[in-house]
Each structure stands twice: as C-alpha cells, then as structure tokens.
Amino acid sequence: MLIPSPKWLRGDDIAASEITPRGVFDARRRLLALAAAGATGSTLAPWFARDAHAQAPRGQRLPATPNNAYVVPEKRTPYEDVTTYNNYYEFGTDKADPAHNAGTLRTRPWQVAVEGLVKKPKVYDIDELVRLMPMEERVYRLRCVEGWSMVIPWSGYALAELVRRVEPQPGAKYVEFVTLNDKKQMPGVSARVLDWPYTEGLRMDEAMHPLTLLAFGLYGEVLPNQNGAPVRVVVPWKYGFKSAKSIVKIRFVDKQPATSWNLAAAQEYGFYSNVNPDVDHPRWSQATERRIGEDKGSGFGALFAPKRKTLPFNGYAQQVASLYQGMDLRKFF
Amino acid sequence: MAPPDMSPSRLAVRPSRAAGQRGLATLAPERVRTVKVAVWLLAVLPFLRLLYLGFADQFGANPLEFVTRSTGTWTLVMLCVTLAVTPLRRLTGWNWLIRLRRMLGLFAFFYALQHFLLWLAVDRGFDVAYMIKDIAKRPFITVGFAAFVLMVPLAATSANAMVKWLGGKRWQGLHRAVYAIAVLAILHYWWHKAGKHDFGTVSIYAAVVFGLLAMRVWWWWRKPATGLKAQR
User: Fold this and answer.
1) ipTM entry
2) pTM of the full structure
3) Residue A238 gets which letter from DSSP?
4) Which residues pair with A222 in a beta bridge?
5) Angle A222-A227-A228 (CA atoms, 0-180°, nearest 5)?
6) What is the Cα A257 distance to its own chain's centre?
7) Which chain B residues touch A280 with a CB distance below 8 Å?
C-alpha cells in the first residue's frame, strides 16, 4: 500500500504568492557570479596591494646635530624602505616581518648591562644612555651580506664615549654585544634559525674607532622597533649583521666572542666580516650590490637598475684599512 | 563512441556510463572546457599580479629580488600541482583531470622561463661568461640551471603532434624527467635558503614534492601483475 508523503514534502503547504518570480529566478546566476567576484576581489585585494602596510606612523622625535665629518655624499634611502625592509629574525625571517611583528617589543623599561673586564661596570638605564653624550646625526652606508645596501641617517654618538666611561682593563681585547632574547616579545625566537640570544662582537680597536656608532635613532626620530630599538650599534665598514640590534648587554672579554652567524655557518660568516668585493660569499659574489630605493618611481625599470660596485670596507677604507694592516683578509673574512 | 584519447596514459576511459551515475568520474567536454578555463585563469593570476605591481611601482624595496622570488615560487607551485594531477586522478577516479596536466606543466615552464630570464638578462645582463662562472661556482645555480634546461624539451614536446611524432612510449619516457626537475628545483631552493639558515618554507615544499613522488613509488611497487598499464 502506498503511504502518501507528508504535505510538506509535496509542497502543498506553499502558497502561490511565495513562488519566486521567473525573472528573479533566472537572475540568480548573475547574482551569484557578482557575489563570487566581489568576495574574490576583496580577498585578493591585499595580495595586489603590497605596499599598503608600509604606511606606518612616524616615531617620536629625537633631536640630533648633524656631524658633517660622517656624511656620505649619496642619496639617502627612503624612510619607508629603511623601516620596512629589515633582517631581524627574532621577528620573522621575511623582510616585511619585522615591521609587521615588532610592535610587541617593549622598549621601556630597558637596561644595558656593561660588564666584564672593566673597572667601572654599570647597568645603564636606557634614558641615562640617551643623555650620556650629545646626539649626532651621521649618514652612513649599510651593506648587507645578502648584496643590498642603504644610506641611513643615524642619531647617536661614538661607542668609544661609553667605553671610556667604564674604563676597560688591559686584558680586555674584545667587546661582545648581546641582543634581547625574549620569547614573549619576539615571536621569531621560537624558531631555531639562529642560536639565541643574538650575539656579535668587535675587536677592541674596532669598538673604539670613531666610526663605530651607538645609535638611538634614525631620520631624526627614535629608532623604530624593527630597526633595533631602543639602542643598537652601527659598524658601517662591516656587513650589516655585525651591527647588533636592541642591545641588552655589552661585555668586555679577553677571547674572541662566538658570534651568532659565525656559529650558524662558519665558512660563510666570519668574525671580521669586513665589506670586501674581492672575497665572495660561498653562495654569491660580493663584488656588486643593489642600492635600495634608487629606482623609485620607475616600475618595471626598477628591475633594470644598475648594480653598484661594492667598495672595499664599504667605502670607509681610508678610515679603517689601517686596523687590518698585515692581515690576510681572505683568511680573516 | 568516445573521441580519440590523446593522453599517452593508456588507462581506458569509458564514457558510456549509466545515465544518472553519481560522481565526477566523467565530465562532459564542455564542462571540462569550463574547468580548463577556470584553472587557466587561476594559473595566470600570479603573472597578472606581477604586471600590475610593476605598473603600480609596487615591487618594493628590492624589485629584482622580489620578482625573482615570486616567479620562482610560482614555478614550484605549478610543478607541485602538475605532479599532483595523476595521484589525484587515481584517488578520485576523475579521469578528466588528465586534461589539465599539460596546461599546468606549461605554466610551470612559463614561470620558470621568467625566473631564468630575470637572472640571465636582468641580473647578469646577458653576460654568458659570467653566467657560466655562476653555474660552475655556485651549486644552487647549477641545479637550478639543470632543472630549467630539463624543462625545455618537455615544453617543446607538449603538443599533440609531438606525442604522435615521438610515439607514446618515448614521449612518456621523456616526460618522466619531471621527477628530476622537481627534485632539482627543491635542491635549488633549499641551497639558496641555506645561506640564511631559513628552512621553514622550503621544508614545506620539500615535504609536498617528496609526498607526491613517494605516492608514485608506492603505486609502482604495488602495481598488480596483470596487464593494467602503470600510470605516471
């Protein structure tokens, strides 16, 4: 016997007035297509607008007096590039990651412990360090080991000024710099890309050299987090990774410090890492570099921007070559 | 009567299924066409994006590095998708997937060609001597160059006429080179990233390629002793 299907299954309960008009029914395909296109468009829009994130708010002003003895006669790299194209692996390994992720870095309160083979070790509060000496503005070249470079106006003073104050002992032959290592503030630290904390070092004469800068700002403002806030060191004649960021400890030691990139790949990253067009990195040549920001406004032309010849000691040979007299710079790369 | 199947894989496709049979095992030709157009549009989108970014001067701080990395990434993605066709076809029974494979493979070559030209023309200014030095000195470029060189005959023999000219078996043998290409591409990417100790992303691609190749090894090892031709 046939069991009649319920009324609702046969559709007997639907009033004629509820039936969708034919025209609307036919138009539904167009409507769906439009909705899909809209959804796709709004999903893809960020993918097509790479630079949208780059409009970050400017930082707090940090007045500094230009020191014309330390200004390179080249066009400065645009602020936007300086602050959105960074290698700061503690915040991610992509160039855009530090600018995106470094917001979690807390630069106050901040202390820098100066210790080791010194007569007057001291834990400096960051604001004490900022006020230690008058701020100078120096325009330095920065050459990354990857083969690109920038020209950046830093605000700071010679590291030598701080070193003199703590009075290193005769046994102190090297200076070690240690960066902050905090999983809570730095998401990239959980990735074992490098052995944290990031550690760098200089020979004593390199640390005392007038070019070596303890930097607190750039472009007349306090350092953005992604550039190594609140205090970093800048050593312009060496590859950029030697210029340690967000320093928490400066230690005076008698043995050459183990530096992070040297520990990661000793045959690729040496302790000295002086910029040298004649000594190739194992994977790429160091003879030329790409100057960031030189090709702005040219669209596709930017692809064809000529590469610059890399200069020995990044163009600071006159000031620093004497430090390495007699040294085989291929052996001590 | 089904149209002559130009696919060199000899798996029999039986279009005369019972009407109303569920599933996407077969698709009417016009539906396949629609899918092909959709996949084509998706595959060309990264290229269109690069064109757009170029015109909008949004290549970023290091334009050549960005475009080189982007074209390299999409080459690898297209390679993976191409390699996924046959496993997907076997797992789902959707035989019409094979019709997408040539297009996907050619897109991989399309992006690889851009990637290669950017290095040769833009980075090295067509300086062949410099290029040869690079290939000889830097292992990651050696394997990358090898992968590209291997892709050329595959792209050149992708047309139906070429399948006929070579004969199915020879064509199939030649196109097995895609396995070597995939491995070389991963090595190229791996050794490049090794310089900055940055293995996160490349490990994922390596795992995907390994998985896609491992599936084939598994099926080849388990293939039945009967007359069924092994699929690629």
Assistant:
1) 0.80
2) 0.83
3) B
4) A217
5) 85
6) 22
7) 137
